[in-house]
Amino acid sequence: MMQADKQRVLIVGAGPVGMVCALALNRQGIPVTVFEQEPGPVKDQRAASIHPTTLEMLDELDVTRTIVPRGLVSETYQYRDRVSGKLIAEFDLRRMADVFRFPFVLQYEQYKLTGDIAQQYADESDFDVRYGHAVGQVEEHDDHVEIAARGPDGIRRYRGAYLIGADGGRSTVRKAAGIPFEGFTYQERFIKIATSFDFQEAHPDYAYRNYFSDPDEWCNLFKVRGEAGEGLWRAIFPTRVDESEEEALSDRGVEARLQKFFPKAGRYEVAYCNVYGVNQRVAQTFRRGRLLLAGDAAHVNNPIGGMGMNGGIHDAINLAGKLGAVLRGADDALLDQYSRQRRHAAVAFVQAQTIANKKMLEEKDEPSRQKKFEELARIADDPAGARQYMRRASLLESLETANAIT
Question: Which residues form the FAD-binding domain (predicted)?
């Protein structure tokens, strides 16, 4: 049986990008159906930093009043030299209070954000979230799209006006559209370890977000509330190129990695850890006919700086605005503009910044390391330079530049 709706938008992927896009469309009176192959909201321990620009967008959707009290407000972030233990630079977003409505980064796990949206808004006839539905076949026609999704009741077909792929780096929608995913994969993988050990108790000068440069093994260290709100610190390291996943995830491997970086008496209590591959890739286009891409389906990057989820939510808001206008009668060339704007933001800002972030943290040449430290310290100490740096790191510059593209 075909489920049809001439105005309905179909979205594949119920992560933060798919759910924010669905909510933004639904607020315009556009019916949406979201398909997620997992049986329910996934408590994946992925992105957790929501930048000031993204908080403003979520505020327009009436989401921040729910999430801000539940997250950790991080007003500062630090860069440190792991070798010497010195603080290189600190940036304070409170200095941007005249620019940002929310002059802080909210540390709030992405699965909580998607769960909040699903709990408050989804599962009505015009905002239909279908967990346990894996999308397979995708067909595009002149005036609609059709998909086949396997759910608890078998395979059913659905029809909509447009199909949005927010289904991750291995996107079914992107593959169905035949859109190349250009870029590269890092040789090393990343390991994320979460521990209940309170690093601020041991190091009161640490911020909630810390970046440690080390020529042998850099580290990102930041705090989240965790499942029960008890507070967890996440440490992200690169694995060795010759290190197996089993070795990295072993109790011995995890303990040795934490103790090498942050020596302490007694063993660390580890809440969870996982190893994952990391790519820097961007789709050749974010639109092919009635098939559209957003978030990781359109671009993936390393997590240093917390730009992936934020850039994806920026995609979602931009796309929802333009697609809503098209469904109300505007020229569908607006969707090509969406592709141009958001692809530019991904390539010129998110890709460039995350690659530069990683290069700075892993720099092995000592004179080059010191030169980069001196430059970053100079920027942080200069009020105008620090403001410009925070504009870029918070993706404000990428928004302004991309949105000016016609």
Answer: 8-351
